[in-house]
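From the methods appendix. Each design record in this collection lists the tokenized structure first, followed by the designed amino acid sequence. Records were kept in a plain field format so they could be parsed without special tools. The example shown here is representative of the layout used throughout.

RECORD:
FOLD TOKENS (157 positions):
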């Protein structure tokens, strides 16, 4: 394996591990409010503005079908509602209800505490911001490389 291949493998494995760690933390933070990480994730995505399921899926990097299932559960539990979408007749917008916002507010103190502890463990806000910048750069680079190969092929090998 070349050095570049080792870097790719190491980065991918680290990101997979991080994903698992973040999901575990999210489950622990959401549980006292009666939520799951998936429900909190979808509901949190529409707190600022209502979005269609496809937009939520794009923002989260997961399938539309996964988001649709969770969105339907949020609506069924009164935590979100579907609104008409002026840009698309059939693709309704998901928006939180007052009850949904209240549930998220119950998670906020644990979220704030964990953010403070993680920031300290990383050496401060400046270091944490650097981590975020690097992850965003990696995400943009992956999108760029994938866009260069619309066939979805991983390349020669």
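DESIGN:
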């Amino acid at each position: 394996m070349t050095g570049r291949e080792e870097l790719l493998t190491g980065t991918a494995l680290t990101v997979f591990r991080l994903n698992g760690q973040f999901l575990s933390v999210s489950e622990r933070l959401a549980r006292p409010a009666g939520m799951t990480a998936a429900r909190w994730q979808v509901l949190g995505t529409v707190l600022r503005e209502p979005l269609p399921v496809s937009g939520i899926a794009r923002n989260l990097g997961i399938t539309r079908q996964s988001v649709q299932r969770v969105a339907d559960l949020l609506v069924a539990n009164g935590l979100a509602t579907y609104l008409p979408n002026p840009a698309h007749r059939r693709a309704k917008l998901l928006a939180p209800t007052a009850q949904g916002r209240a549930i998220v507010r119950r998670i906020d103190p644990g979220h704030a505490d964990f953010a403070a502890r993680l920031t300290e463990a990383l050496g401060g806000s400046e270091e944490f911001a650097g981590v975020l910048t690097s992850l965003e750069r990696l995400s943009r680079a992956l999108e760029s490389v994938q866009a260069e190969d619309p066939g979805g092929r991983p390349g020669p090998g």
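APPENDIX NOTE: The chain has a mean pLDDT of 93.
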